[in-house]
Design goal:
Structural class: alpha+beta
Shape: globular
Radius of gyration: 30 Å
Oligomer: single chain
Number of helices: 19
Strand order of the largest sheet: 2-1-4-3-5-6-7
Number of strands: 29
Strand content: 15-25%
Helix content: 10-25%
Amino acid sequence: MWLLSTNRAELSYFEEYSSIIGGYAILSHTWGHLEQSFQDVRDIQARCKATGENPRDLVSAKIRNCCLVAENDGYAWVWIDTCCINKESSTELSEAINSMFTWYLHSEVCYAYLEDVREDDNIHEEDSEFRKAKWHTRCWTLQELLAPYLVVFLSKGWKRLGTKEGLATLLEDITDIAANYLTRDHSLVKASVAERLAWSSNRKSTRVEDEAYSLLGLFGISMPTLYGEGRRSFLRLQQEIARQSLDTTIFAWGAIYETGSDNLEPVSLKDMHDYFHGPIYDERFAFATSTNNFDGDAMYYTPEIGDPIENYLPTEDEPEDSDRRVHGPFGRLELPSFEITSHGMKCRFPVIDCGDFLIAVLLCETNDDHIGLFLHPAPRSETQDPTRRVYYTGYAFSKAGRQPISADISRLVALGRDLSNLRFRGETYQAEWRDLYIHTSPRDGEAAEPARRVVSFAPDTLAGTPFRIPRWLLGALAAVRIPLYDWDDCTPEDSDSESETESDDDDDDDEPDEGEDGDGGGVDVDDAAALPRAWVEFGDPVTCEGIRLWLAMARPEGAGPDAPAEHYAWAEPENMDNWTGGAEYWSEREPQAEDRVAGWEGMARDFGDEERTVRLSFAPCVFDPETALVLHIELRGTVYEQMQREAGLVIPPRRKALNPSAEDAIGMVRTAFVAVSTVAVCRMLGL
């Protein structure tokens, strides 16, 4: 590790921290815009060697003041992350990230520098600067708080505010980390996996990968750092934790079905597959997408806590041949196990069979109940080994008479306080051990990363596709919580026999067909056969805010079968009152005269009301101008404008979107890299 000498701010390398006589101090801080790097400090050091100056006089104020404080406290060496890691070397950077917890752990003192807290701040006040300090909100500072024995908090002017031990109660209130862990009365390794992940929930990092990398030391894990992998880094972290730990609280995240929910009815398994298997439903998988998923009730691994609701493992004074020691509450005394395989995670859990769904007893608990995990089988249409049935997590429950899409998904269930007589929906159950496979994360075709989904669904060419949706627009809509939710190719079948049958039926029908002389005023249905149509749904089923979008190719009314097809489009804002989330509604719609894009003024049209207005507009695709139109969507109205303000971006008008200035383009690039929670792409749309 590289260290700075406190008297001259010169860098020196040490093979082992144990070889540093007198130990070293270490700095914890939040990064600013003008931090000096390893190369900057080395350059200053080289210049001063020629001039005879002291490099400490020329480094940044933060580095210089840190050196002065450490020197005054008797330390000859200090480590500062901004300048003691050669980030130009990927090997050194990866080594530093994997070693950082250890480096903080072995420091003699950690200075936590709070640049937004004045020295005269009354830190115990409810609205104190100390409570609101940015330092408490960053991912990396979690390990910097927990690992060192001695943490000294310093104000903006480098004056002491207190120590971790002396401020433990205040820090517990700020960070939700129990004071016993801060004072070392309880060992960090005794905290459950879910507890440790919850400590990091709602903290922020500049790079999404750092949410996982900043936790490596807290779990004693080493793994390669791969900046650019996105959310996959957190998946890899969980895989490593699962390989090294029996702690089942790693699966104990998400909404809990509790006793008060017994008035809700489970949806059918078919509805579960039809409505709740879209790519936005992360609850389906055993592993979480973020530490934020663990921001809920505290979870404890029953076999390892000192004062459980009831002992699962026998106590030392129980006879060797006691029924409890031999059989336990589930017929055989053993611990749950899990192993990552190519079929999913091979698990062994005590299981309750509820018909359409199962409940795996996790052997973890809150302060009040034992906790189970809902499981439901993967649809038969999914490619899987028939000898290894695979399950997803979670199940949906709805009020009687309501549409399935309005149901609430629960991952977990409170099972009462008696493992031998587990309670669910007013009934008592006994669980039995079972081997099964569980999906841990989206497969490649459903990957959480936008790039992977696009690769899975996009055709290789643009030629001949009638509509295109820009990928940056998908990212922008997802950022305002209207992600691409579902799509369906509803192109009519082109069959002579079917056309004849339909024609015969029409002759016997007293009512005119929609699309002929009836109120629809659209196009002839038979002439439209085999021309591509699709409906697309953007939306968030949690908020029920979305957009229904219908796109089609059709011939205008009165045009012959040889006339060229034209583009038709229609949209409708969705909310709680009209959310459908299914294809049945859409498959019935036929092209209408007012849907003809060429007839819109400026090829743009508004749909909706003063609260929610969707403006559709189109422009010829530069790669296929004769055939394809590029879609643009603007969101207007009070509700949509508020959603855009909350997301920190506004989708620009078509003119700016197609011909952006440099400033606009930077904003769009930022949008394109938003972590899109759901993208599925229809081949007909040519994405």
